[in-house]
Design brief:
This protein has 857 residues and is α+β, with helices and mostly antiparallel strands. It has 33 helices and 25 strands. The radius of gyration is 39 Å and the shape is elongated.
């Protein structure tokens, strides 16, 4: 049967049944909740597509013009013609841009099964109409009130006749014809203009305040003359005591036929606010990428021996976050971002011990051994796909509890999609183009106007702002423009085309008009709407991440094997240092300033720290001479020798603690020092002092007095103190919290469509009446075991398909269409059209069998 001869669908299920597989796949891809789980047939699919939760989810993913079209359908007739919808959208003047864009919007609504039917009978699914249609409790987004017929439903016949007479219409014999006459007057542009031309100026001002909504107003028991004039002619109708409404037909006349004050068929353009050369952008982003790596390393090195404690409710305390921000020399929100990024990348976790603390994971040590570009790519991928949102830290949750870093309640499932979309908009600009934040936000609001609570819309805007800030911190962008590695991280411009130009109507060849007959097939309309680029699959993202690392690698500075020693006891690292050099220098000196060049300062405490770690003075001299491009300054050499000469002169061991020194004068000096009173020392021998403090406290106390004691073992050997790296047990990175079911891949879509088609065939195929108990549509067939066996054996010989009722081992009944191949041993082996495979069924579980009608076999 051709498309032209096919009867108009009477339900959404019939409309879905008429679709081809490509169109069904487009529906299931755009609304993945419909196949979770896979429906048994198309009737169940249609039922699920009409549920309130699914419809709301679909409406929230419409762009602004498609949503405006759905709102127009909600206030139009049911069914509505294409011309009626076009009039509501384009108005009496017929806006050509709106007219050209309407086919695309209707195509979107049809594809997502929110609208069904031909151009002469367009139907919005009932649930969407209920959600979008106006009511006193839920004012319509179009600002239109109820129609005259609805508003006068509870009005007395006498009052309706009075309104008709005052409006200048002849009286009728019943209320139905009176309401019809009043409706005809309000929808007749000429007669309506003449009626309003008689209205007092004050009355027209009242109408102008209600015309764009809300359409409801308050009146007193004795209305003012300007209101009485409108009430007498039905231009305002009472809906409840003290409340009046502007009828829909009157409002549409005043709006020149338009349902919306400002239809928006074209998406706002995202234009560059500033432009930089691509080389400058890439260099800036690469520099920031290096800073990001250094910051994460510094953070985890700070927590290397065990970080802050985990709060009882989970997360990091405000005090610990402040300390971390001071250590990193950044603001607290930025410190929270780096902490969350390390956690999202699996480099940081809680150790799970009794005194639970945060610490680096074993994956951190593996990460440190990777090349710099690969380390950055891992951080960037974790940021791009994470649902945890650092920008929320410090805010309040639904129970008015403070949201803490690394704590619960930070997941926002929309975050990955917003990040991808913001970066895609940047990728569509010319290389080096940096848009303003407001233009990006305006575009996102058009693409996802969101009908949810205002706080949800505000969150989406904040997510976009945070994305722009975090992308700059991470080096995905440079000076506000997308970098080369950022483009590669998205999959590259050639792997997935991104259409982010202002979306206008589909292009129509010159000399032709764009009308209802020119609409594209349902499953092709996506090429003419703004492409909402979906996140890459895990496999695709892994390829893109590797490509981003390759792009970034040549832009990062090469690690240096030298520093510049200066006479003021500082060393300047003019760039990133090789890891062994950086590690040793971090022990021997303190970082004084960071940036493009890092400045290290040598102090007695830092030199003593290196000696405590087991280095000798000669080792330190040799290290500095080998890695300095300038001669070792004399003050630095003297500092090392002086600290080394005094290092270990005093020995501290466990008595509970003791101090030993070959020079008894030094011990006498310590005993005489009032600052040592807290250590509670007493002389045991000329060269030994005993203390009631533990060795660690005694060491710190003596160092505070200006001495350089060394710890010793029970055998009298100097103890070498090295930092103890604390690691958590192996931990996996936190899994993102998805926003609804994931988009199905091609394999799942194909299998789901086959199953739905087969189930629909079993449920709708015409059957011949069986010789046993008569059956009606939807009931399982009932036949005796003998009749079932005989019919099965006959079908094996003739090759015919049968319709059977079957009850599985769990007691679940189902209908199936099978083609029997073999019947033996109490089993039937058949090709199951429902499952699209050969299966074997026990005959005792077959409740009955019926032959299919001739045109179905």
């Amino acid at each position: 049967m051709s498309t032209e001869d096919r009867p108009a669908p009477r339900s959404l299920a019939e409309a879905l049944r008429a679709r081809d597989d490509a169109s069904l796949a487009a529906l299931l891809r755009s609304r993945p909740d419909l196949i979770t789980p896979v429906p048994t047939d198309l009737t169940q699919l249609a039922t699920r597509a009409g549920t309130r939760a699914s419809v709301l989810r679909a409406l929230e993913r419409l762009d602004r013009f498609a949503l405006q079209t759905a709102e127009a359908l909600a206030v139009a007739g049911d069914p509505a013609s294409y011309e009626e919808v076009l009039g509501l959208m384009a108005g009496d003047a017929g806006d050509p841009v709106v007219s050209g864009a309407l086919p695309r919007a209707l195509g979107t609504l049809r594809e997502q099964a929110l609208v069904w039917g031909g151009d002469d009978r367009l139907r919005l699914v009932r649930t969407a109409r209920e959600v979008l249609a106006p009511s006193p409790q839920h004012p319509s987004p179009t600002g239109l009130g109820p129609a005259v017929q609805e508003a006068t439903a509870g009005m007395s016949p006498g009052r309706i006749q009075e309104i008709v007479a005052t409006a200048g219409l002849p009286s009728t014999h019943d209320s139905v014809s009176a309401v019809a006459a009043l409706t005809a007057l309000f929808t007749d542009r000429k007669r309506m203009a003449a009626l309003l031309g008689q209205a007092p100026e004050e009355s027209r001002e009242v109408l102008s305040r209600l015309v764009w909504g809300p359409p409801y107003g308050q009146v007193t028991a004795d209305p003012a003359p300007r209101l009485r004039w409108l009430l007498d002619r039905g231009l305002l109708l009472p809906t409840a005591p003290g409340t009046v409404v502007l009828p829909r037909e009157v409002a549409l006349h005043l709006r020149a036929g338009r349902a919306h004050r400002a239809p928006e068929p074209v998406s706002p353009a995202v234009e560059p606010a500033s432009t930089h050369s691509p080389q400058v952008v890439d260099a800036t982003a690469a520099g920031q990428a290096y800073t990001a790596l250094a910051t994460v390393e510094e953070l985890l090195k700070e927590w290397d021996e065990g970080g802050p404690a985990v709060l009882r409710a989970g997360g990091l305390s405000v005090r610990d976050l402040k300390r971390t921000a001071v250590a990193l020399d950044v603001a607290e929100p930025v410190a929270a971002f780096w902490v969350e990024l390390a956690y999202a990348a699996g480099l940081l976790a809680s150790d799970g011990e009794a005194d639970e603390r945060y610490a680096p994971t074993p994956a951190y040590d593996e990460w440190l051994e990777q090349p710099a570009a690969e380390r950055w790519a891992r951080l960037a991928e974790a940021w791009l796909t994470a649902t945890r949102t650092p920008g929320l830290i410090g805010g309040r949750d639904a129970k008015d509890r403070t949201l803490s870093a690394l704590g619960p309640g930070l997941d926002r499932s929309a975050a990955p999609e917003v990040r991808h979309r913001v970066l895609s908009l940047l990728a569509a600009l010319p290389a080096g183009g940096a848009p303003s934040a407001e233009s990006v936000l305006e575009r996102l609001r058009w693409e996802r106007p969101l009908r949810g609570p205002q706080r949800d819309e505000d969150l989406r805007s904040r997510l976009a702002r945070w994305t722009l800030t975090e992308a700059e911190l991470l080096g995905v962008t440079g000076r506000g423009a997308l970098s080369a590695q950022g483009r590669a991280l998205l999959g590259g411009p050639s792997s997935r085309p991104v259409d982010v130009s202002p979306s206008g109507p589909p292009q129509v060849p010159a000399g032709e008009s764009a009308g209802p007959g020119d609409k594209l097939p349902v499953h092709h309309h996506r090429h003419h709407q703004p492409a909402l680029r979906e996140p890459l699959s895990p496999a695709e993202q892994a390829v893109a991440t590797a490509a981003a690392a390759r792009v970034l690698a040549p832009l990062l500075p090469e690690p240096l094997d030298h520093v510049l020693l200066q006479a003021d006891l500082t060393a300047v690292a003019p760039g990133p240092l090789q890891r062994p050099l950086a590690d040793m220098l971090g022990v021997l000196a303190d970082v004084e300033s960071k940036g493009g060049a890092t400045v290290y300062r040598f102090t007695p405490a830092s030199v003593r720290r290196a000696l405590d770690a087991g280095s000798a003075a000669s080792d330190l001299h040799a290290f500095l001479a080998a890695h300095s491009r300038t001669p070792v300054p004399q003050p630095l050499a003297y500092l090392i020798d002086d600290v080394a000469r005094r290092h270990g002169h005093l020995r501290v061991g466990a008595a509970s603690a003791y101090v030993r020194c070959d020079d008894d004068a030094v011990l006498s000096e310590i005993l005489a020092d009032k600052r040592a009173a807290a250590l509670r020392l007493r002389r045991l021998a000329p060269t030994v002092l005993a203390a009631q403090a533990d060795p660690a406290t005694l060491l710190e106390g003596l160092r505070g007095l200006g001495y350089a004691p060394a710890a010793e073992s029970a055998e009298g050997d100097v103890l070498i103190t090295r930092a103890h790296a604390h690691r958590t047990p192996p931990r996996t990175a936190p899994e993102p919290v998805p926003e609804g079911p994931p988009t199905p891949d091609a394999t799942l879509l194909s299998a789901a469509i086959r199953a739905i088609r087969a189930g629909d065939l079993a449920a709708t195929a015409p059957r011949k009446p069986a010789t046993g108990t008569p059956v009606s549509d939807g009931d399982l067939p009932r036949t005796s075991p003998a009749e079932t066996l005989a019919t099965m054996q006959a079908a094996v010989l003739t090759g015919e398909a049968l319709w059977i009722g079957y009850v599985n081992a769990e007691g679940t009944a189902s209908q199936r269409v099978i083609a029997p191949i073999r019947v033996e041993g109490g089993f039937v082996t058949a090709y199951d059209h429902t499952a699209d495979e050969v299966r074997t069924y026990p005959l005792h579980r077959v409740t009955g069998v019926a032959e299919l009608a001739e045109d179905q076999t």
